[in-house]
Design goal:
Elements lengths: L2 H17 L1 H43 L12 H23 L4 H6 L1 H6 L5 H33 L6 H31 L3 H31 L10 E4 L5 E3 L3 H33 L3 H13 L6 H31 L5
Antiparallel strand pairs: 1-2
Length: 340
């Protein structure tokens, strides 16, 4: 394999994508959904900011400058709504780029003509994958550039830490696009007709994105078993108004505390078992992996730092493995393909 020939194929594929009507139409919808999601995020951010200002004023009036201040809403909340809008169209864009990279050339018999030139099969498949990945990168960069430009025009300026988080989210979302793209590339190699490849690609994308996580949740509930029941607090009775009187018996209170400790341990075991099964199934869902990472980056205070780091790296690993496996399958099949 010669790198120069790989880049020649990649440049040709990249130019075909950027000038193709199919790519431009889906890119236009992609950017429209980005703007729509950003508008929803900005509305929610402004509402949270208004509530924050009111809470700050109440805190200052009640306790003075030394009072406990609420947390200022993050610009990342806007990105959360944006990504929710982009997930579906991002997957469709990735499938549109990859589903006919090989199948279309098999149908038009241009693949034999291409391989009759001084270029090897591995250079062709690597160049096509590189060109398609670059086109996806351009689409994602445009969406994020438009978003940041609009935010700056509205005087919403992210902090340096938020810029870093935005960069992490952009990388993770690009890995998500690559995962879906490699799935489409694999189908383009193994399926004879482009029409069938796009149908199979969309069906698999929807199944892996929505059906599989639901199955993982149901399987987690089944494996974890019945949820532990919270112990009942010992009481002496109620008065006429329904007010509950907690028991003053030391033995009853001690037994209740022991039951609470046992309940906490059982609940922790139950949740850990359920989470293990659900995360294991979601490992095969690019959407679930992407959302797990982005939600952790946007809402880092919802879990301990070590759990957040594990979830981020686990989601990134799942996306990398997914993309690597399907590209390896596409590569191996293409190298053994009969072109007669």
């Amino acid at each position: 394999m010669v790198a120069e020939r790989v880049f020649i194929v990649a440049r040709k594929e990249f130019a075909d994508h950027l000038t193709g009507r199919k790519f431009l139409v889906i890119l236009a919808f992609f950017l429209m959904f980005a703007l729509a999601g950003m508008q929803q995020g900005i509305d929610r951010y402004n509402q949270n900011l208004e509530s924050y200002n009111e809470q700050v004023q109440l805190a200052e009036d009640a306790a003075g400058p030394a009072g406990v201040m609420p947390e200022r809403p993050s610009v990342l909340f806007i990105l959360s709504a944006l990504l929710n809008s982009l997930v579906v169209f991002g997957g469709i864009l990735a499938i549109a780029i990859g589903f006919d990279l090989v199948s279309k050339e098999k149908e038009t018999r241009t693949l034999q003509m291409l391989l009759s030139h001084p270029v090897y099969r591995d250079e062709v498949i690597n160049g096509k994958a590189l060109g398609g990945s670059a086109a996806l990168g351009v689409a994602l960069a445009l969406a994020f550039a438009v978003t940041l430009a609009v935010l700056l025009l509205l005087s919403i300026v992210p902090t340096p830490g938020e810029f870093v988080s935005i960069g992490v989210i952009g990388i993770v979302y690009f890995l998500f696009l690559l995962a879906v793209f490699t799935l489409a590339l694999f189908l383009s190699v193994v399926v004879k007709e482009s029409g069938h490849a796009v149908v199979y690609g969309l069906a698999l994308f929807l199944a892996l994105s929505y059906v599989l996580p639901l199955f993982g949740t149901s399987l987690g509930d089944a494996v974890a078993g019945e949820m532990p029941q919270m112990p009942e607090m010992p009481i002496d009775g109620r008065d006429a108004d329904g007010v509950i009187y907690i028991s003053s018996d030391p033995a009853a209170l001690e037994a209740y505390e022991e039951e609470c400790d046992r309940y906490d341990q059982e609940m922790e075991t139950y949740q850990a078992k359920k989470r293990f099964v659900t995360d294991s199934v979601n490992f095969f869902s690019p959407v679930a992996s992407c959302c797990a990472v982005t939600s952790t980056v946007i809402y880092p205070s919802d879990m301990p730092p070590e759990d957040a780091a594990g979830r981020i790296w686990g989601g990134i690993a799942a996306l990398v493995v997914f993309a690597s496996v399907f590209f390896a399958l596409a590569y191996g099949k293409f190298m053994r393909m009969d072109l007669r």
